[in-house]
Amino acid sequence: MLFLEELFDTVSRFLEAGGDVLWFIAAALVFMWSMIIERLWYFSFTYPKQARLLVAKWESRKDTTSWHAHRIREAWISQMKEKLHSGLLVIKTIVAICPMIGLLGTVTGMVNVFEIMALSGTGNARLMAAGITQATIPTMAGMVAALSGLFISSRLEYSANVHAQELADHMPHH
């Protein structure tokens, strides 16, 4: 229990030092990772069942060689590709936006530094330090948030393309 209290205290001080912009980064991070976990769940558990059913449906067709059958196959594969890629663009967009939110924190922190300089002059380094901290922490947090999703979003996109190709390979047309 003491560990959780210390962790909560550390996170609270970090959020306070970084300013209100960190809450937006945290919200984007939670949303992004929720979507990533959903996609991982889909690829691991839901998609394999759907793919098996679709392949079985294709194999149970009497006609797999006509022009009409080929268009049905293409439509089914296209529908599965759409399901596989669902949400990936949103994840990639959040990855791209996180550093921008961090830069917003940098701007607001620097505005605070300039306000302190205007009120107290340039000689009070202690007062300026809080503003500089508020300017650098959101930038770092935005970059870390983006990096945490960058690799996995690329991997998810690759997996979606591989699954779509494998599905097409399992539905032969003659």
UniProtKB/TrEMBL annotation:
Q: Entry's InterPro entries?
A: ExbB/TolQ_transport (IPR050790), MotA_ExbB_proton_chnl (IPR002898)
Task: Write down the species.
Answer: Aliikangiella marina
Listed under GO biological process in this entry are: protein import
Name of the protein = MotA/TolQ/ExbB proton channel family protein
Q: What does the record say about its membrane topology?
A: Multi-pass membrane protein
Asked if the keyword Kinase belongs to this entry, the reply reads no
Q: Is this entry keyworded Kinase?
A: no
**What keyword terms does UniProt attach to this protein?**
Cell membrane, Membrane, Protein transport, Transmembrane, Transmembrane helix, Transport
Q: Where in the cell is it found?
A: Cell membrane; Membrane
What cellular component GO annotations does this protein have?
plasma membrane
